[in-house]
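User
New here, explain this?
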Amino acid sequence: MPTTDLNHQIDSQKSQIQLGSPKIEIIAPCILHDGIISFSAEEKFDLIEFFVQKENELVFFIPASGSGSRMFDFLASSVPDKIFEKETKVLNFLNNMDKFAFYDDHLRKAHSDWKSGVLSSRKLVELIIGKKGKGYSKSPKALIPFHHVDGRVLNGFQEHIIQGVKLGTNDVRYHFTIQESFKHEFLSSLEGLRTSFNEEFKVDFSYQNPSTDSFAFDDVLKPVKLKNGQFLKRPAGHGALIENLNELEQQIILVKNVDNVQHLHSSTPSLEVWKTLCGLLLKVKEELKGLYINPSLHGLLEFNKVYQLYTSIQLNINDDEKSIRDLINRPLRICGMVQNEGKAGGGPFFVKDKEGNITKQIIEAVQISKEDSQQKILAESSHFNPVMMALDLYDFDGKKHDLKKYCNDENYFVVNKSYEGQEIAFIELPGLWNGAMYKWNTLFVEVPIEIFTPVKTVLDLLSQKHQARH
């Protein structure tokens, strides 16, 4: 990279850090019947039928580069052994070890030794997370065994593929974003799946583009240099994956986190939601295409009464072809939203920008001002970030949108972390479903909470949705 470009990037990112994470003005939370829609059982049935009739090519886009280290954080505690052995989470893990999919003959023997007092808790844990054991604290979360399924042990990566096949459509493909250093392990896991099920799967991989990495700055805002003279850089968050998504040629993309996968025996509700979201995507796109061919503000207003795709401010446009077409001819996403059962956090909100435009956006809590009025609105939110998204990346002329044109680059994040004992700060790009999709046409639809079973900690795998039926 030319020195002038390098200096420009460093100065630009330094300025962003000095300004801090931009705060976004939220007007109100999107709630059921006001920004979020729902469907009756009959309507869901009709949407599923609509999906089945269309037989479209589908591509699952699954970010899978995350480490499994956080799953085992509590087992990596540095407290003294006497305290470690009595911690509730540690005991829960060790006492229930035989319920985890990674429990094999080697661990069975070690577990027996632990029960009889021959092996310490710490040493048993090391056999799972340590370098000389299974090494799960350094493994991608996608490759950690999640479930026993009909005599097989499947990890999250494999189970997303198997569940996708069960959608019943003829052409399902899978795209996983991974760390390049683990590609061999992913290919080995894929080959194991093909052998076990005697079936071919259309799977490909990509990596987060290193050119999107951010410079790291120290506490006096100087770029940190490594011993080899190079600048220290950090991955710029999952918002960088908009570039990977933009490289896909297919039209309909299904997005889901790799750790949100139920046991195959409990996956029917998720499959029904996928079909419903896809049916809704196809139906909305079809109706919008009719409005694109024959633009009518009255028709758009009637359409919006049903789907609540746009705010009243967005619909305050001229009744002419260009205004209507400019509004509706954008990438389209259908976001499956679950009710927030815990503390209010990131979720769907009505947002006002500097020009006074009001749109529906997915906003993280860190993007919201600490002012009482803004925090009050945050506390009133009822739904969580999208847990499943169905996307249409094509325009009405059958051409692929350039997704980078629909980002809001101002919605970046300032991240503070520690690196080799020193505090560093760097920029993360606008989140994939936050600022990276800011200018998309967005529809929020409520989906049942039972389809949201993320594995944030290994203990989550003890829940009913992750255990085999007996």
Notes: The chain has two domains: 22-68+157-206+237-466, 70-138. The chain has a mean pLDDT of 94. DSSP finds 13 helices and 18 strands in the chain.
